[in-house]
User: What shape does this take?
Amino acid sequence: MFVMSAALISGELRSTRYWARIKPDPREELYGRVGAWLADHTARDASVAYVEVGRIGYYSRRPIVDQMGLVTAGVAEKVAESDFGWPIYHYQPQYYLVNSLFGWVNGLPEEPWFPGVYRPVTSFSPVDGTMTLTVFEKQSGAEFPVRPDVETFQVRGERVVGEMIAGHSYSQTFSASRNGLENVATRLATYARVNHGTIRFTLEELDPVRVVHQEEFEMADVKDNEWHVFQFPPVEDSAGKRFRMTIEPRQGSPGNALTIWYSSRNLYKGGQYLVDGQPAAGDLTLRVEYAAATLSGAK
Assistant: This one.
């Protein structure tokens, strides 16, 4: 009986593994439906932007703007800098597809200008309800805003700094290359949980030291593994000046804390990572933006 039971269990396991291999990904059926809808409801020359373009491109037969850069010129270099919005600004596709699973690449719908340029026309979900894919259409006559100038200092984050506990601080210095510095961003993570408490962000200009911006934000409002942007009025004369961003948990304890993605290697030579004010190895993830009006300004 033991041998027979073992044989039956072994057979069930093999069957389960086989089913797991052949079971289709829910996105396959979803992308087929989305591609068919685009084929039926859009002009033949209407461009479509998305991050996974294979099936959608095949079934829609529409010009594709690939946000991952596999088939669209100029995008790959921007992907290397985690600049996923560039192909939308640059190519201005007629249709822009946004998947709820890919929050790390879909920041544009949260921009103030977005509702004036794109409107949602339909949405799709697979049978298991694991995601929602929304189709946005560029509105007739809508004009894109001039894009802020993005400067990426350090986007590689192969590890995190650990739970940020109250009483400690995490800083990164950098030098601005242009005038009009207007926001700083770093990649935060939540450990896939909802944390509670506040964190203080401070941006200082160095030499001499002065506080440019300071704010407190709620840990519960942070999205896991996404860039968290700190916005402030443009620093008109920021070109060539050194700055320090500092993140200090006001509350934070083991099991209830955020963390920051960083590289343990010193990849950004123009700045220094500090823990509790002391130099540490590596660099925090960091990118900045400059006001659009200064795009042709000093570098």
Summary: The CA atoms of residues 239 and 249 lie 30 Å apart. The helical segments are 2-22, 26-41, 54-60, 75-79, 86-91, 114-117.
